[in-house]
Amino acid sequence: MVNSHEYYMKFALREAEAARDRNEIPVGAVVVCNGRIIARAHNLTETLTDVTAHAEMQVITAAANVLGGKYLTGCTLYVTVEPCVMCAGALGWSQVGAVVYGASDDKRGFRKFAPEALHPKTVVTGGVMKEECAALMKEFFKKKR
Amino acid sequence: MVNSHEYYMKFALREAEAARDRNEIPVGAVVVCNGRIIARAHNLTETLTDVTAHAEMQVITAAANVLGGKYLTGCTLYVTVEPCVMCAGALGWSQVGAVVYGASDDKRGFRKFAPEALHPKTVVTGGVMKEECAALMKEFFKKKR
């Protein structure tokens, strides 16, 4: 079963909404392997008092746990916002097959600050459902002000 | 109590030796706050089947847990090898006061691949006990071949 990027991004968006509902910066991620979502996570930095608890970090750990191996070569990671340097570094170590993100992050995104962080074979697609992904972030920070 | 960088790096080296003894790439780290070691960790990527389980990632989480807050502003992180992109990104989020590392890592180190990953106020010192730190790595990879 092969679904569209939008199909899987909607699940990542649901995770981002779950983060927002916990008063966390609304970022969500899922890992897809052979058409199946094998792991999902959302940002939990406040809940866990841990700067490393980004959605991507948790979903990498969870997916490896499901697969029983460290590498996510055959998997695609969907995330609502462009990964930061930390998460891109982790994705690089994971050798994930593909990364699909929604909204760009010009202030913290890896493309500007660590453009070579991912594995050279990792296929990157940005901008999938970017309006919906960005809207969640904008609403969150507007309420915070 | 203020001790020398070498004093604390020896504890990080002990952690690196503990990693080696588990057949893990020998990298160790400690976090020091007000002269006291509040957290220590070593690389556990193989044991945990998790590419994110670098010494620095674990010690950041552990130190935040001890302090009860996400930020390590008043702390110094000692690590036997120059942090990678992922760990430097995490250290950036933590706003750690200082990073002291031993051996350089020209292949994976953040200085080459994400030179702006750390917080601008973080003080970085490299090369502390670098021979001892590098020797552990060299011996490990020599045996692996």
UniProtKB/TrEMBL annotation, chains A, B:
<feature type="binding site">
    <location>
        <position position="87"/>
    </location>
    <ligand>
        <name>Zn(2+)</name>
    </ligand>
</feature>
<keyword id="KW-0862">Zinc</keyword>
<keyword id="KW-0479">Metal-binding</keyword>
<comment type="function">
    <text>Catalyzes the deamination of adenosine to inosine at the wobble position 34 of tRNA(Arg2).</text>
</comment>
<comment type="subunit">
    <text>Homodimer.</text>
</comment>
<dbReference type="InterPro" id="IPR016192">
    <property type="entry name" value="APOBEC/CMP_deaminase_Zn-bd"/>
</dbReference>
<dbReference type="GO" id="GO:0002100">
    <property type="term" value="P:tRNA wobble adenosine to inosine editing"/>
</dbReference>
<dbReference type="InterPro" id="IPR016193">
    <property type="entry name" value="Cytidine_deaminase-like"/>
</dbReference>
<dbReference type="GO" id="GO:0052717">
    <property type="term" value="F:tRNA-specific adenosine-34 deaminase activity"/>
</dbReference>
<dbReference type="Pfam" id="PF00383">
    <property type="entry name" value="dCMP_cyt_deam_1"/>
</dbReference>
<feature type="active site" description="Proton donor">
    <location>
        <position position="56"/>
    </location>
</feature>
<feature type="binding site">
    <location>
        <position position="54"/>
    </location>
    <ligand>
        <name>Zn(2+)</name>
    </ligand>
</feature>
<dbReference type="InterPro" id="IPR002125">
    <property type="entry name" value="CMP_dCMP_dom"/>
</dbReference>
<dbReference type="GO" id="GO:0008270">
    <property type="term" value="F:zinc ion binding"/>
</dbReference>
<comment type="similarity">
    <text>Belongs to the cytidine and deoxycytidylate deaminase family. ADAT2 subfamily.</text>
</comment>
<keyword id="KW-0819">tRNA processing</keyword>
<dbReference type="InterPro" id="IPR028883">
    <property type="entry name" value="tRNA_aden_deaminase"/>
</dbReference>
<feature type="binding site">
    <location>
        <position position="84"/>
    </location>
    <ligand>
        <name>Zn(2+)</name>
    </ligand>
</feature>
<protein>
    <recommendedName>
        <fullName>tRNA-specific adenosine deaminase</fullName>
        <ecNumber>3.5.4.33</ecNumber>
    </recommendedName>
</protein>
<feature type="domain" description="CMP/dCMP-type deaminase">
    <location>
        <begin position="3"/>
        <end position="113"/>
    </location>
</feature>
<keyword id="KW-0378">Hydrolase</keyword>
